[in-house]
Known about the structure:
Number of domains: 3
Radius of gyration: 21 Å
Strand content: 25-35%
Largest sheet: 9 strands, antiparallel
CATH superfamily of the largest domain: ATP-grasp fold, B domain
Helix content: 25-40%
Number of strands: 21
Distance between the termini: 54 Å
Amino acid sequence: xxxxxxxxLKLGIIAGGQLAKMLIQEASKWDIATYVLDQEExxxxxxxATRFVRGSRFDFDAVYNFGKQVDVLTYEIESINVExxxxxxxxxxxxxxxxxxxxxxxxxxxxxxxxxxxxxxTAAYQHFASKNDILxxxxxxxxxxxxxxxxxxxxxxxxxxxxxxxxxDLNKLLDAPSIVEDKVDVAKEISVIVARNANxxxxxxxxxxxxxxxxxxxxxxxxCPARIPDRIAIEAQQIAIRLIExxxxxxxxxxxxxxxxxxxxxINESAPRPHNSGHHTIESNLTSQYEQHxxxxxxxxxxxxxxxxxxxxxxxxxxxxxxxxxxYEGLYEILAMExxxxxxxxxxxxxxxxxxxxxxxxxxxxxEAIIKADNVKQFLKVTACSPN
Length: 388
């Protein structure tokens, strides 16, 4: 892209959270001007963007007017006014990934249908319009325990999901259009991030393994590389490449998989953007996911995804029951540890299970990194300042 090195390229990012912040940090290395649209002036990316624009990503006019100011438009979250994106695309704004991909991913029901209709492995599922429809299906013997309900829209960061194992869990049911999946007997959860540029070049990052905080259904710890057989890792990458090509997508696509106890892979869900399961790439890979996203959307040659060092990534989540101005305990202790890299997102207020930052631990072996990560978790806590 000829404008890349002129210093005049304006990259717009819809939403200004931590993903946008880390994308801006990479863009600054290439002298790219960054514009951010967000409703909150103190969002993580707001203070480091070349220009911050206050506005709602749900509002047609705010998204449309923002998009008209930039050369290339991308996003860090799926819940956006997609009609404004289609209008911008029709007027020639370079918008990547394409709104058609975003619109598909926004709806978990449509997303699952796409996997099924195109031969991608995914858990068996049914569509339901309401909680009452689910209860009726159970009563009629058309739906059996255990199952997982996923709200079709607006579910993210562990929200919009209900795991139903028995009658005792029915109070957890969500009253919204949703899909209900057969519960997979999960041995591991893994993620593969794949990039594709407009020339059709694709590159995958090595598969990573995710361990979840069951209280919040959020990633607690990520291990790179995943402790899985080589054939499973290769199969996951092949599925990822086939999926991004089938979507005809340009940009970065993160695919979360279930690996069952029979060593079978199922796609859980996908996200067309930089992803929580790729934070470690800043330290552990030759090219970070953020640089790769820039390379993809600017149609540059994709970078090497080679692992430089094994790594463990820990999400820094707000302690449950703690709310208010954020306070980090244990930073001094963990910064004294070799191979520990701390990323704080700049969120001023904490609450239970809010993503406030992450720590990447690198070491000569994955086993050594895991031991160090457990030590980090003992010291580092995200709490709230006591009121005066």
